Amino acid sequence: MARAATTADTFNAVAEPRRRQILDLLAGGERPVNDLVHLLGLAQPQVSKHLRVLREVGAVQVRGDGRQRLYRLNGHALKPIHDWVKNYERTWSERFDRLDAVLDELKQEEDDDGGGHE
Amino acid sequence: MARAATTADTFNAVAEPRRRQILDLLAGGERPVNDLVHLLGLAQPQVSKHLRVLREVGAVQVRGDGRQRLYRLNGHALKPIHDWVKNYERTWSERFDRLDAVLDELKQEEDDDGGGHE
DNA sequence: TTGACGCATGCCCATATAGGAATATGATGA
DNA sequence: TCATCATATTCCTATATGGGCATGCGTCAA
Q1: For residue B25, which residues of chain A lie inside 8 Å, CB to CB?
Q2: What are A73-87's pLDDT values in tens digits?
Q3: How many percent of chain B have pLDDT more than 90?
Q4: Which of A20, A21, A48 is nearest to A33 (CA)?
Q5: Which residue pairs from A41-48 have beta carbons closer than 8 angstroms and sit at least 24 positions apart in sequence?
Q6: B54-103 residue pLDDT tens
Q7: Chain A closest CA to B98's CA: distance in Å?
Q8: Strand C atom within 7 Å of B20 CB
């Protein structure tokens, strides 16, 4: 077997630096393909291909606008990555225990609050 | 050009599910290769290969112990991933703004405290 | 209708796997 | 020294790229 498809999951999709760059750019707002082409300094077909991969894993969404196609970030697709790597944070973060305490307090407050939210 | 090498960076290294599994297992503590072989249900050579990739990006460290080789997690290598994906957290986390506020308060406290730490 | 513009696809090539099988390497015990 | 255990490395194969280039397709202006 060869390596897994880049469209297999978000981990594979963002393993490519260019695709992370694209997401970083889209974090600033919706953009047409040509914008990305110029900002990345890549050929238009390659950009379209990268966008396709990102689309297939749900990391971006498209919207037609005249002859342009506006791409928009969908950060939610990155949550699995965050969830996975989050558990390793305590490995390097010395302040993690302190943050931990704070979060516990937050939870406490919320519980005491009763169900007045959401 | 083909896809980037898995050893190019941690993103590529952990794009492979088996390697994430290995890291998850090592999160529980140091383990010899054979342990991983049995836990993963993979052939020994494949495990050694995955471990090599993880070693080359610094995600694990080895220590000889008799005829065994004990592998140990080095979560610090995952920090770049966490740093990158962290910025997208606000996309899906509704509580992010609240946490933000709390962290700001922490920073305030620290600043008011004067240099009494580290 | 025609031409131009903005994107998406299809094709070709070089490259890097991931797994399977066989073998090399290191350390240990008799 | 020799057999054995625990790992690492090598060789081989099928597969999935990512970039370059040409082309197809939908939309808009004249």
Answers
A1: none
A2: 999 999 999 999 999
A3: 68
A4: A48
A5: A42/A18, A46/A18, A47/A22
A6: 999 999 999 999 999 999 999 999 999 999 999 999 887 766 666 666 76
A7: 10
A8: no
Residue A21 CB lies within 7 Å of the nucleic strand D: no
Which tokens go with A99?
């943050």
Query: What is the number of CB-based contacts under 8 A between chain A and chain B?
Result: 79
A11 Cβ nearer than 7 Å to chain C strand: no
Cβ of B16 and A27 within 8 Å? Answer: no
Its pTM stands at 0.80
Reduced to 3 states (helix: H, G, I; strand: E, B; else coil), residue B73 is strand
Coil, strand or helix at A69: strand
Q: Higher-confidence residue: B1 or A36?
A: A36
Q: What are phi and psi of B64, to 5 degrees?
A: -80, 140
Q: How confident is the model at residue A22 (pLDDT cuts 50, 70, 90)?
A: very high
**Out of B9, B78, B99, whose CB is closest to A85?**
B78
pLDDT > 70? residue B115: no
DSSP B4-43: PPTTS-HHHHTTSHHHHHHHHHHTT--EEHHHHHHHHT--
Q: What is the DSSP string of A32-65?
A: EHHHHHHHHT--HHHHHHHHHHHHHTTSEEEEEE
Q: Which two tokens stand for residue B20?
A: 């994430």
For residue A91, which of B8, B43, B27, B109 has the smallest C-alpha distance? B27
Q: Look up residue A93 and give its DSSP letter.
A: -
